[in-house]
Design a protein that fits this description.
Elements lengths: L3 H15 L40 H12 L16 H11 L5 H9 L24 H16 L9 E4 L11 H8 L12 E4 L4 E3 L15 E8 L6 E6 L4 E6 L5 E9 L13 E8 L2
Antiparallel strand pairs: 1-2, 3-4, 4-7, 5-6, 7-8
Length: about 290
């Protein structure tokens, strides 16, 4: 979520870059994109809230609020590519975001709830199927279940690689119980960055940023972990996670990057007769 002071910082940077100090954003065109119907995070402050009503506020907050109030044109997009194959669901979600829950949409939501007794259709067992969880703890539990399950399929002597976030040495002064508590926190407590990641070569990876959109490496694209790049001289220690029930390999030095392979899709029709494998592209992304 963008905050008011960040809008003020953007304004300042653009004025300097374009060398136009007397015009907001240096005279450049700024498009703010977002879901403005979403509630702000717990403890967060929306753009429209007047900062001067607070006991303490900064100059940047006030400047950002004034910039926000200066926005005059708003375009509401009524189409979403994610709902093209399920327009009925998309229409219901759109109304629900406006607070309109129709009986028909409630019936659709209820019919799609999966319980332990619900038989899964073959199409839902597909690895590309998506589903919604009621909370982040359930989502995290499902993600964590993947590692011990996949670890059992690894060859003997191979283990998942656990990459711990770089806390800049701030964990060294804490007790073991405090470190354990931090490592068990949800990734939502760290700005969607998990305190650690268990990596297995071949595991699915979802790109959450537009790394190279022109090369089809964009947000929501799925790929597979091809390799982990280590610094020279990196050593490893085997650690058994009793909570997850899995033994992991922890590198002594944080890996600088990983290589992810993203499928480009089927080959062109003109090459159908040639012996061509499915095209794919490898790219590297920085590690934690």
């Amino acid at each position: 979520m963008m905050q008011k002071y960040q809008l003020a910082q953007l304004d300042k940077c653009l004025r300097v870059a374009k060398r136009v100090s007397g015009v907001p954003f240096g005279g450049g065109h700024v498009v703010l994109i977002g879901d403005f119907l979403q509630l702000p995070p717990v403890g967060g402050e929306p753009m429209y809230k007047v900062p001067s009503r607070k006991t303490k506020f900064s100059h940047n907050e006030l400047a950002g609020y004034q910039l926000w109030r200066a926005v005059k044109d708003v375009f509401i997009l009524k189409e979403c590519v994610r709902f093209q194959k399920d327009p009925e669901w998309g229409c219901g979600c759109h109304k629900a975001r406006l607070g309109i829950w129709t009986p028909e949409f409630i019936s659709i939501v209820t019919s799609r709830v999966i319980t332990s007794e619900s038989p899964l259709e073959e199409s839902m067992r597909n690895t590309v199927s998506t589903f919604v969880t009621p909370n982040n703890s359930t989502r995290l539990s499902i993600n964590n279940l993947f590692v011990p399950t996949a670890a059992k399929l690894l060859p003997e002597g191979e283990y998942p690689v656990r990459v711990v976030s770089n806390f800049k040495g701030r964990l060294k002064a804490l007790h073991r119980s405090e470190v354990r508590m931090i490592m068990q926190l949800l990734d939502t407590k760290f700005g969607r960055l998990a305190p650690y990641l268990d990596l297995i070569i071949g595991m699915p990876i979802q790109v959450t940023q537009n790394v190279r959109a022109a090369k089809i490496v964009a947000n929501i694209i799925l790929g597979r972990l091809e390799a982990i790049v280590y610094h020279p001289g990196t050593t490893f220690q085997l650690v058994h996670d009793s909570t997850a029930g899995v033994t992991v390999k922890v590198p002594s030095i944080l890996p600088p990057e990983v290589i992810v392979r993203v499928l480009r899709g089927p080959p062109p029709l003109a090459w159908q007769g040639a012996r061509m494998q499915e095209f794919s592209r490898c790219f590297s992304i920085p590690a934690l």
